């Protein structure tokens, strides 16, 4: 009797403390949801983002209140969605008057009422006239803004109006905050309450690269919340089972949880950060092009939003690694225009006549607008060993090795090319009228040209390759060439074997002839922008040559460089743009997104770097023959031109539906709420077991009682899962609890419910093992 009294007193004290823990959970939840609007404010892409703090607060408060309503989930969800939409519309339209206006109208209403009732002299304005005028004016503005935005969106033009942006962002913040409060209080599931919010915070930081501190704060709050919520859950379970527990357990758990959380976060922040590049690139190269196109459309629809502040870039920030994967859809945006000192190309009417009479390359050289070069092959893409930029004064040569060739002056106007690593022809010598920088691995090995201006003029020297001279360039390579541009990681043997075979079959003995042989071999491959990218553990060249046997310029250029190096020819990987379309009215080449290109460059002692072209849709540098060849564009496949395949909007809709299903709806609909009634909970466990048994072809037979059937099921599961008696014991626990729940008139002990649920949790593994040895349907009598 003394023990029971002490235990009861201990539990009563714990229950009195649990109320304070709920307030602590409320504060932690509020701190977590506030991280989202603060992260958005820090990134700066939503104007007036300070107002979103109140959105998060009211969303969380609504979640707390609605969670305590005695109504089914579907009704609370429906009402909350209506409330969310109403709040978002009010937020975007700014319908609610300010506190000053409301207080002034309230005083005016009291005065009006005094005059009307006591003095019987009601005068205008009527009560709350200013508030009503505010609402009417802003509602009319809202209607006009929505109509204008819809018209601009349908026409595909740019819109500066932010009404729809505010609706979408406020709705998202409100719903995520509401979900956190609702799930935390209604279902006591802190993990599913805070995960969607965390996804939003991390996504904002990932796309804007601003606000990482809020991610750290959110993670710390989440870990502490999980600790507190878990001890609450355990205390409720112990109370239901009538078990004694220490009153100091909550305090000790909280202290230990906060301490462990602090240690984990400190260690995580102190450990050097390293991105798992393979996993990141594997994802990004599959969905990145669609995401970029999606955001391009958003930029037009919400052109009035603030740009995301970017950290001050390093001079060579554009020299990040490049992974070869999927090309995706090609955009049609104009990236830049370039006026070049070369003569204008002949128009189409002149082209055929000239082609019969002259070598057109003598009049219209084909140019590559090269942006960067790479020297380190990684097996999945390219890196550069040089990233140190050297600043150079305007009109001064940067010190590179200048060879004989044609001096080419180019004036670039950058439009949508958002990079300080800029294009230039072949071997840039100097930039006119403004300071610039170069990133070079050697005086004859330029990695990139860096100009911080949207308009610049660069002077280059373009080589005039002569086949006889290239065949004769068989002297030894400089030491830096052999070190940087002949090096390879361990590549599959069949790649180098194939390169040797191609060279041998062509009878190629000089470096030039080897390069031509490999170029011609790769030009037989199918050009395909939608090629499935290789697996994370595959060498990209081996995958391209032997499995896919199709691809685009990234694949052909990479394969060419790797194969050339494997047969002793120095080569590097170059990225930039094809020549583009010549605009005769303006006298400039118009270079678009679809002109992005990659190609190999081969080093010849005494001649320098010479461009080769292994991509089949491109013309070979020495003999352009059609207007399309002169344009140098990476022409899309017919599927890309006609928009074949699944439209991007449908893919995005499917992705959004999957996120909503897995993150928001699934925990509610399929995990389900735990039944408060122990009998219903036990019957639910029995139903789950029977459904699992049907998958094993061990469903109940006619005439079997539940006890007989579960005894039969226990024998079958034991035999097929080899559970050493544990499965039979757990099925027996469920059988006893089920028969007591169905046939007994006495109250079912909470221990019976807990035992049945624990037995079901343990049974899942043996049931999965038994599935692999399940009998045929009807085989077991």
Describe the structure using short key phrases.
about 775 residues, alpha+beta, 5-stranded antiparallel beta sheet, 20 strands, flat, disordered N terminus
Question: TL;DR of this structure?
Answer:
By secondary structure, the protein is α+β, with helices and mostly antiparallel strands. It has 24 helices and 20 strands. The strands form five sheets. It has a six-stranded antiparallel sheet with strand order 10-13-7-2-18-17, with no helix packed on it. The chain has a five-stranded antiparallel sheet with strand order 9-3-16-19-20.
Folded structure, characterized:
There is one protein chain. The radius of gyration is 35 Å and the shape is flat. Helix 1 (2-43) runs antiparallel to helix 2. By secondary structure, it is an alpha+beta fold. It has 24 helices and 20 strands. Strand 4 and strand 5 form a beta hairpin. The chain has a six-stranded antiparallel β-sheet with strand order 10-13-7-2-18-17, with no helix packed on it. A five-stranded antiparallel β-sheet has the order 9-3-16-19-20. The model is unreliable at 1-20, 272-278, 310-318, 621-646 and 663-673 (pLDDT under 50). Helix content is 55%, strand content 12%.
């Amino acid at each position: 009797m003394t023990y029971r009294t002490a235990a009861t007193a201990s539990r009563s004290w714990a229950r009195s403390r649990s109320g304070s823990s709920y307030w602590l959970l409320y504060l932690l939840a509020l701190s977590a949801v506030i991280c989202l609007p603060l992260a958005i404010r820090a990134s700066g892409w939503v104007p007036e983002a300070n107002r979103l703090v109140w959105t998060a607060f009211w969303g969380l408060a609504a979640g707390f209140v609605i969670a305590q309503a005695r109504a089914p989930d579907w009704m609370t969800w429906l009402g909350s969605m209506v409330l969310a939409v109403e709040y978002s519309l009010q937020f975007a339209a700014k319908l609610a008057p300010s506190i000053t206006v409301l207080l002034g109208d309230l005083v005016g209403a009291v005065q009006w009422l005094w005059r009307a009732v006591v003095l019987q002299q009601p005068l205008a304005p009527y009560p709350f006239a200013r508030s009503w005028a505010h609402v009417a004016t802003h509602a009319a503005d809202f209607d006009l803004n929505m109509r204008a935005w819809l018209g601009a969106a349908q026409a595909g033009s740019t819109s500066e109006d932010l009404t729809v942006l505010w609706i979408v962002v406020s709705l998202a913040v409100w719903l995520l905050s509401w979900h956190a409060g609702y799930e935390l209080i209604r279902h006591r599931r802190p993990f599913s309450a805070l995960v969607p919010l965390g996804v939003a915070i991390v996504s904002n930081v990932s796309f804007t690269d601003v606000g990482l501190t809020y991610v750290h704060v959110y993670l710390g709050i989440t870990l502490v919340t999980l600790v507190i919520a878990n001890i609450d859950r355990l205390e409720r379970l112990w109370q239901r089972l009538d078990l004694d527990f220490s009153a100091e357990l909550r305090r000790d758990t909280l202290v230990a949880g906060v301490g462990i959380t602090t240690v984990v976060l400190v260690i995580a922040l102190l450990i050097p950060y390293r991105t798992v590049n393979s996993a990141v690139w594997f994802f990004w190269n599959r969905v990145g092009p669609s995401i970029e196109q999606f955001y391009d459309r958003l930029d037009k629809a919400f052109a009035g939003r603030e740009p995301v502040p970017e950290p001050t870039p390093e001079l060579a920030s554009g020299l990040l690694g490049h992974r070869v994967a999927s090309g995706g859809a090609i955009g049609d945006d104009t990236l830049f225009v370039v006026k070049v000192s070369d003569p204008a190309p002949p128009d189409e009417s002149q082209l055929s006549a000239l082609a019969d009479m002259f070598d057109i390359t003598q009049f219209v050289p084909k140019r590559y607008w090269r942006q960067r070069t790479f020297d380190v092959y990684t097996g999945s893409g390219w890196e550069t060993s040089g990233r140190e930029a050297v600043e150079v004064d305007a009109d001064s040569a940067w010190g590179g090795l200048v060879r004989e060739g044609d001096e080419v002056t180019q004036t670039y106007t950058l439009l949508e090319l958002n990079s300080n690593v800029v294009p230039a022809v072949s071997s840039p010598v100097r930039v006119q009228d403004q300071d610039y920088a170069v990133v070079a691995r050697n005086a004859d090995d330029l990695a990139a040209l860096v100009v911080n201006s949207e308009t610049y003029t660069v002077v280059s020297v373009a080589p005039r390759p002569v086949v006889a001279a290239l065949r004769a360039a068989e002297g030894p390579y400089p030491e830096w060439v052999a070190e940087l541009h002949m090096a390879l990681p361990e590549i599959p043997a069949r790649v180098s074997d194939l390169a040797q075979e191609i060279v041998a079959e062509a009878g190629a003995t000089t470096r030039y002839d080897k390069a031509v042989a490999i170029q011609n071999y790769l030009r037989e491959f199918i050009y395909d922008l939608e090629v499935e990218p290789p697996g994370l553990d595959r060498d990209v060249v081996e995958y391209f040559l032997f499995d896919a046997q199709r691809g685009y310029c990234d694949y052909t250029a990479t394969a060419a460089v790797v194969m050339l190096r494997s047969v002793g020819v120095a080569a590097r990987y170059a990225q930039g743009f094809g020549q583009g379309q010549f605009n005769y009215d303006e006298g400039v080449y118009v270079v678009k997104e679809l002109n992005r290109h990659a190609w190999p460059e081969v080093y010849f002692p005494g001649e320098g770097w010479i461009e080769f072209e292994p991509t089949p849709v491109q013309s070979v540098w020495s003999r352009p023959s059609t207007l399309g060849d002169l344009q140098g564009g990476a022409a899309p496949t017919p599927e890309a031109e006609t928009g074949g395949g699944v439209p991007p909007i449908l893919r995005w809709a499917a992705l959004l539906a999957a996120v909503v299903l897995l993150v928001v709806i699934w925990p509610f609909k399929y995990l389900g709420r735990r039944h408060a009634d122990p009998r219903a909970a036990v019957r639910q466990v029995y139903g789950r077991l029977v459904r699992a048994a049907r998958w094993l072809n061990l469903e109940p037979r006619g005439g079997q009682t539940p006890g007989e059937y579960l005894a039969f099921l226990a024998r079958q599961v034991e035999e097929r899962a080899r559970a050493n008696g544990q499965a039979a014991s757990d099925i027996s626990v469920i059988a006893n609890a089920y028969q007591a729940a169905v046939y007994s008139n006495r109250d079912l002990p909470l221990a019976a419910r807990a035992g049945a649920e624990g037995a079901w949790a343990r049974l899942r593994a043996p049931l999965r093992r038994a599935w692999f040895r399940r009998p045929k349907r009807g085989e077991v009598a």
